[in-house]
Amino acid sequence: MRQLLLSNDDGVHAPGLKALSDALSDAFHVRVVAPDRDKSGASNALTLTRPLSVGQLDNGYYYVDGTPADCVYLGVRELWEPTPDMVVSGINHGGNLGDDVLYSGTVAAAMEGRSLGLPAMAVSLCGKTHFDSAARAARMLVEQTDHLTLPPRSLLNVNVPDLPWAAIKGIRVTRLGHRGPSDQPLEVRDPRGRPRYWIALAGKNADDGDDTDFAAIDQGFISVTPLMTDLTRHSAIGDVQNWLGTLSLT
Q: What gap in Å lies between CA 221 and CA 133, rounded to an integer?
């Protein structure tokens, strides 16, 4: 039986994580390592300034007082033998579309798995109601990953519309859309009158063409986007080389 490591960024008690575990546990050997609290927006951060603590809930889930990437790192390298066959992260409470992937702890957990040499998938529900639909989609896709070949350092980012399963129109392969700049931060005052700031919501869609993840979700389709951990803009290497050719260190 294939071994799956599950994690998330909403925390070990999140309903989405339980829905994912329940959907997969009868077909796979499921092991859960998740943050002890909500770590949304943690991106790919690792905790390097203190040791990490690990605990276990009555249901067998492990929790870590660190980031999603910490959880996957420990889950793969320390907490179990044998090494899992795949990392699945989610189900996130809200979409991870377009530029969200740069900040998402859900996607980061999957990326950490990919960086450790494992196939990986991030799964998000674009809402907070129909986790059963997202869990069913995750089960269907994970069952078929043995038949998928991706280039090295690649992973899948899956977003599911917040609809009953019967209302979902199908599955699309998509590219990431892009958002515009976020709004101004919201200033508040603490009880002593000192300014504090809430980070604003993500900006409005700036690129939501028909082939994007934004469009697929808006039209009622599951979005599956292949991502890569290599951030090099290969098409710009020649331009940068030409630019550097005009510079001198003397």
A: 12
